[in-house]
Amino acid sequence: MKIVVTGKEGQVVRSLIERAAHNPQIDVIALGRPELDLSDTSTIARAILAAAPDIVVSAAAYTAVDQAEDEPELAHAINVVGAGAVARAASELGIPVIHLSTDYVFAGDGVKPYVETDETRPQGIYGQTKLDGEFAVIKANPRHIILRTAWVYSPFGKNFVKTMLRLAESRDSVSVVDDQWGNPTSAVDIADAIIEVAKHLGANGSFAGYGIYHVVGTGSINWSGFARAIFASSRQYGGPFADVVDIASADYPTKARRPLNSRLSTDAFFNAFGWRAPDWRISTDTTVARLLSKAKG
């Protein structure tokens, strides 16, 4: 099975390439700039059609949450127009598209984990463009699987885990917000979820479960608790650690509002595909161990 994934350097893209290496029946081709540029729709169909995949994974996106407030046109071009063009190219080939979305489509003021049918009410430009991108994908290709995820980290790129470890190298304490709750999610686990979906679709030509699903790490925590877990793992492996000082979101103002409740329910995905991500603590520990091992050479 040949999978084309958009982007080359993203956390999910790099994780998907790595995990596919352990699945010999999966061949992943990463398409990014210059041959595929989401801000230039003229490149999208040409690159995807030329690759002739069996499934397209729409992973690349504009993800600078605060910067999006100053660049709404660019965020829209990539997350809405670009995403729609990717889904449309897959439709032209008569194949499914797996599109990645985000918890930011929700307002974040609920008290329970969000399910797929809950009201969407983005609070910023990034969340709005990702929601509009979902609509664009749905319109462009009826054979769509939209995976909403959250709090993504991995051994690759920039993310919260790597930031905490870096800060601990030079600080005795780190201030982290304690009133935002969510599901820390390893990009490696997202890659495994994508592969599960791809295998399912490849084995079931009459699949009737196209739609929106949530894929996040199992279990939830606030950001300060997540930081403490990172430092606990790091300390266990002889890496840097720091004390965590709890602060409120109001004490750490950002241009774009963050959801206070980013928790997502993954029951629908489990019911459809029989797969659930590991407990977030397990995947976090695995990532920290790998990062420290790499740092030690």
Automatic annotation (TrEMBL):
InterPro entries: dTDP_dehydrorham_reduct, NAD(P)-bd_dom_sf, RmlD-like-bd. It is an enzyme of class 1 (oxidoreductase). Its cofactor is Mg(2+). GO terms for molecular function: dTDP-4-dehydrorhamnose reductase activity. It holds the Pfam family RmlD_sub_bind. The keyword Nuclease does not apply. Binds 1 Mg(2+) ion per monomer. Residues 1-291 form the RmlD-like substrate binding domain. It catalyses: dTDP-beta-L-rhamnose + NADP(+) = dTDP-4-dehydro-beta-L-rhamnose + NADPH + H(+). Pathway: Carbohydrate biosynthesis; dTDP-L-rhamnose biosynthesis. Keywords: NADP, Oxidoreductase. Its EC number is 1.1.1.133. Transmembrane segments: none annotated. GO terms for biological process: dTDP-rhamnose biosynthetic process. PANTHER family: DTDP-4-DEHYDRORHAMNOSE REDUCTASE, METHIONINE ADENOSYLTRANSFERASE 2 SUBUNIT BETA. NCBIfam families: rmlD (TIGR01214). Catalyzes the reduction of dTDP-6-deoxy-L-lyxo-4-hexulose to yield dTDP-L-rhamnose. Belongs to the dTDP-4-dehydrorhamnose reductase family. This is dTDP-4-dehydrorhamnose reductase. The gene is rfbD.
